[in-house]
Amino acid sequence: MKILNIIKLKLILVLNLISLSSFPQEGNSLEKIKNTKVIKVCTAGGFIPFSVNTKEGWVGFDIDMVKGYAEYLNAKLEVIDYHFDGIIPALNTKKCDLIASGMTITADRKKSVLFSEPYFKDGLSYLYRKNNVKFEKIKDISMLNDEQYKIGVRVGYTSDFYVTKNLSKAKILKFNETADIINALRNNKIDAIVTDTNNTKILQKKFNDIFEYKNTNVQNEYFGVAVRLKDDELLHSFNDYLNFWKKSGQYEKDYEKNFISLTKNK
């Protein structure tokens, strides 16, 4: 009887070892991607020109970047849309393998995720209605720190954190969708939108008969792709791809398509 129990115990141990070796361990998403030939990317749609979901599919600078990475890994790309404030929780509950969503690298976010090398530099600007006499006199964004102003931001972005901290006297309205915040500005429900500079430029170009914009003194934000804290191998792989993307000349082509061609005068 004792011998039979020992045999059963050994059999259980062997089966457990086989089970553990059959599946990628925690922190080895790269192996899982290579095995399944699928890479899942979380993004927040509507952030022009980084990630936008159109009738023809996903487009934007970040989308081109991760499409290239999927090809680099010989994997199929699956893009999953989340509100920005829910995107890190989605990553950390394994709804996706990485985040590509114009995400600024910050010390606070580094507590929850690992960031790639920076792939883009941006800043903060504010968009307002043309012929707004009050705004024509504004020389610095700090002058908007007044209860007479209603400022719109997208939830969870660095513009949200900046405005909450630095313009606390103003009335701050928070939005999940770009379309909603644009409509609020058009319909005089808010006085200005604070957002990323490149996003501001393209929105102003798109609505050039309605909006104007000004830059702030915050112009040193760096975007990175985020992975889970234990996914060192995936992070190393993506950084290798970033180097390849830039050296191959494809980075410049994707930048031209998504930024220059959208902002230059016709």
TrEMBL record:
InterPro entries: Solute-binding_3/MltF_N. It holds the Pfam family SBP_bac_3. It comes from the Bacteria. Keywords: Signal. Residues 38-262 form the Solute-binding protein family 3/N-terminal domain. Residues 1-24 form the signal peptide. This is Transporter substrate-binding domain-containing protein.
